[in-house]
Known about the structure:
Elements: E1 2-4, H1 7-10, E2 16-22, H2 33-41, E3 45-48, H3 56-63, H4 75-97, E4 102-112, H5 114-122, H6 129-138, H7 143-148, H8 159-166, E5 173-179, H9 184-192, E6 199-204, H10 212-222, E7 228-234, H11 240-250, H12 256-281, H13 294-299, E8 306-310, H14 315-324
Helix pairs in contact: 4-5, 6-9, 9-10, 10-14, 11-12
Amino acid sequence: MVLYLHPVNTNSKTKIPVAVIYHGFSDSRTTFTGLAKFLASHGFAVVLPEHIGINFAQREATLAGRGTQLFRLNEFINRPLDVTFLLNYLEGLNQCDFQGRLNLKQVGIIGHSFGGYTALMLGGATVDFQELKQDCQSIAPNISLLLQSRALEFIPSSLQRKILSQGLKDPRIQLVITLNPFSSSILGEKGLSKIKVPVVMGNAGYDPATPVLGKQVRAFTWLQTPKKYLVLADGFSHTTELTTLLNSLLYPSSTADKLENYVTTFQDNARAIMYAFLQVHINGQSQYLPYTQRSYAQFISKPPFSFSMVSSLTPEVWEKIVEER
Length: 325
């Protein structure tokens, strides 16, 4: 775990808002160092945990023959529990090292990929094994579904299935931001509808791992929380590296430096959107509301990347969009 906190906050007496950023499958916390430093420079205490059972090191060890699987089955449970353990640990540090100034009653979590599943579970979602089994039998497999399908390996009568079906909600999580989450099949409509806290669901337009035209966007329609937002990033992919590769193929005439500038601009804009939602829903700063609106997403769109945002979308409208495309 790494905690980012701007030095100026150590001398202030005001409450410090807290955000957790959780990496995805075969990744590491370093991927989000830039985002963490940005949020910390604007007053947040930002925690970057690394889950050793499903990170980049685990993948490399498995590929090198030093392991037998890319991730252990219990990671479906362990990852949400790790964040709860982390917040419990911070509760202790808060009294000893921060004089109670960390606001751990209203925590925001940003989860990418498998970390998106983690964030949604902590926000109140539950696993729907029936939906997952049905999808695995009827939907063409992709990376996301293959990973989610591993949860079916739990014995039907097992304690693990009971825990996941009941959920692993942490009441301290008061805002969920997901980035290309692995979640639509394993949580399903039944599981996602149980979330009551605000949710910002971010999806990339060019994502082979969690395709938008599959169930990713439809999952947004299953959310019943009154404060929900869908942010689509056209031109981006599942990771920065894959985005750079795809755009080098799509725009062969552009130089490497120019493509890098495109990606940097996109990341800066994406950080600004996440920061605004954290300020509004975690820090109670209503003056940032204009930056959580559709008009702002359109304003900061820069080719080859563009943002679109909606806060309402019915399953019928989404199915019509898919048919037209």
